[in-house]
Sequence to fold (256 residues):
Amino acid sequence: SGHILEFVDNEKGLPKAKVVLQIDGQPNCVSFEDRNEMIICDPSSQALLTTGSENKTSILCNEYESESFRGPSHCIMDSKGCKYFTDGGPLGDTSLQSPKGSLFIINNQGILRPLAFKCLAQPTDLVFSPNEKCLYVLEMLKNRILRFVETNNGTWIYSVFYQFNGAVGPSGIDIDSEGNLFVTRFEHKGLNTSGYLSVIEPSGKLVTEIETAAPEVTGITYNKHTNMIYITEVSTNSIFQIHVDDIFNQKKMLNQ
Fold:
């Protein structure tokens, strides 16, 4: 639909949806520079978009060295104003046999450069550690989490931080103040198996894992004020929620 929605409490303990913006595209991820300025990943236009105070969208970037993006997936910003985004295109556009996904940075001078170029198999979501020394990037079709670390000379080195088994692969990631990673793992609906929510310590140890109520989980966000986790799921067009305590203590199925 091209809608970007905001969910707010209706004062009865229930969420109420409000349309913040509608674009002529398929917004996959939104990051906020401030309340009125958004960075939007739009795979359908193969571009990273930006909005101003009047909610008018414009193209921030859509190519690197005269080559079009495959389709930006997720974008985040650090405390210095640098923007980081994955470029993997639609599911299946890049694969194990032909890993052509990339990770890019736009620094605070507006210069675009790749941190990993045309070598990733369906990169999806990404998140910084609380101290911003580590950048975690999901590589869905290799079913793993990569960790990028910037060296003193400005070079980024990356390695495998965690290797999953089962399901298609990780689709969404967020982090708490202690550095625990919350990761959703997508699975095909037709296989009659579950998706997963996994919790991983900063050391790389799996803490716990629970099955999700529906398999095609696509995104996750953690609310530090309420200690709640929200998960989007495409086969049911739903948003699920679970309290972090329920993950650690009960490992129960997500309740809609």
Notes: Residues 252-256 have pLDDT under 50 and may be disordered. The chain is about 0% helix and 55% strand. The first strand starts at residue 3 and ends at 9. Residues 101 and 128 are 19 Å apart (CA to CA).
